[in-house]
């Protein structure tokens, strides 16, 4: 009998491309500000401003744009033109409007897993943007629930387990972020499959030290279904 | 026996002050832009830009600020300074950081209702900002669940009823917006108590034409508990 009662999937960079768009946005931002100032140290300074603002803005594109505008004013000593600030707003609007690009093999993998287990989508970021991406992805009906949370930490997973009425030991999370998708779930006694993406925002870096017998790494979406089966059938530690 | 199985409360302008802050923000915005241009028609033009952008930004403070920046660039023909644009960002940061001011009598009313019925909070806007306000309000533990949705229409209430496993006829919603809180719930066969607030965003205007026997208006938070009781005991139409 399976040990798994419910499987959670992360969305950004697990189901579809996301961080690439943020990297491109950053490059465009640096190009705009670079017309005013030397920007060799600006990527790091931008990250500092973004990190400071997360407490107010949370995650997502809109907060990123507001932090970029703050940064642009600061970096240029307020010399940046209104037209160039509007270009920064346009970066964000393009991101919010971009097509959803599913990652290779993930659609088949998710649909295959859905044949055997109930699935929930658990993601953070802008509620409105995430709901739009889920709708456009064509995967809405595969997931029993879509949960968009402001932060993915132990407290938020505990709340979700209570809402889902699931024992943490019977929950498995699939995602690209060790910090947000895997570490808190392992810490609470659940299982995790890490699917690394080729770029990871520095904010999402983490290391897993405990519960490694409940933790696997999949280097291809196609490996996920078999890996879930192996975890479901593995002896309880 | 009560006909009510679950009661939903709206948050902004039902539990705490919100629209006043948006009005103040708009006044400050017009003051800033007014240094460059005649702003006698700008409030309406700003609303047009905000409405157009809701499809991309959704509701909430961050989208409001981004629309204000777009509007400021447009209204001033890109003559607005970076410093003044930064002031517009600061308007938003102040709003996201403002203390939560509960409306008169609402805390007692909600706690009294919670003694007899399970309560959920259903609100739209920025996920991060709304979660922060709920936490600061001291009302978190009164609600069994906090649902932050991107839009409050019939489709989103239907999804919630399914998640809550509640029959629409046994659901009652309390809120200040006829359009978002009352009309869709009445339309789906539920009950509604409208608690008008002294200001309503033009976007939230609506009229209720059907189901008026399942619909009441409370002119004071203190009236809510008795009004719920009367609806609970009224004969099924």
Descriptive overview:
Two copies of one chain form a homodimer. The first copy, chain A, folds into two domains: 144 residues, 3-Layer(aba) Sandwich (Rossmann fold), CATH 3.40.50; 79 residues, Orthogonal Bundle (DNA polymerase, domain 1). The mean pLDDT of chain A is 91. Chain A has a six-stranded parallel β-sheet, with helices on both faces. In chain A, α2 crosses α3 and α3 packs antiparallel against α4. The radius of gyration of chain A is 19 Å and the shape is elongated. The first copy, chain A, is an alpha/beta fold. Chain A has nine helices and six strands; from the N terminus they run βαααααβαβαβαββα.
Short key terms for the protein model shown above:
elongated, DNA polymerase, domain 1, alpha/beta, 6 strands, 237 residues, 48% helix, homodimer
Write the layout of secondary structure elements.
Two copies of one chain form a homodimer.
Chain A: E1 6-9, H1 19-33, H2 42-57, H3 61-75, H4 82-97, H5 106-114, E2 119-124, H6 127-137, E3 145-149, H7 154-164, E4 171-175, H8 178-187, E5 191-194, E6 215-217, H9 224-233
Parallel strand pairs in A: 1-2, 1-4, 2-3, 4-5, 5-6
Helix pairs in contact in A: 1-4, 2-3, 3-4
């Amino acid at each position: 009998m399976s040990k798994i009662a419910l499987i959670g999937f992360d969305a950004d960079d697990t189901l579809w491309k996301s961080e690439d768009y943020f990297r491109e946005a950053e490059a465009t931002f640096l190009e705009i500000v670079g017309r005013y100032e030397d920007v060799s140290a600006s990527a790091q300074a931008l990250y500092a401003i973004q990190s400071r603002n997360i407490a107010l803005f949370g995650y997502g594109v809109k907060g990123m744009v507001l932090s970029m505008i703050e940064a642009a004013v600061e970096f240029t000593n307020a010399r940046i033109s209104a037209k160039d600030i509007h270009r920064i707003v346009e970066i964000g609007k393009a991101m919010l409007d971009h097509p959803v690009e599913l990652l290779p093999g993930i659609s088949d993998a998710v649909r295959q897993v859905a044949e055997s287990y109930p699935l929930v989508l658990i993601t953070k970021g802008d509620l409105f943007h995430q709901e739009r991406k889920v709708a456009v992805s064509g995967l809405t009906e595969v997931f029993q629930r879509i949960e968009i949370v402001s932060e993915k930490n132990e407290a938020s997973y505990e709340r979700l387990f209570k809402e889902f009425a699931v024992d943490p030991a019977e929950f498995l999370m699939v995602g690209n972020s060790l910090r947000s998708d895997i570490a808190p779930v392992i810490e609470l006694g659940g299982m995790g499959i890490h699917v690394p993406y080729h770029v990871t925002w520095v904010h999402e870096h983490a290391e897993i030290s405990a519960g490694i017998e409940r933790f696997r790494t999949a280097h291809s979406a196609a490996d996920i279904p078999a890996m879930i089966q192996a975890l479901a059938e593995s002896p309880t530690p």
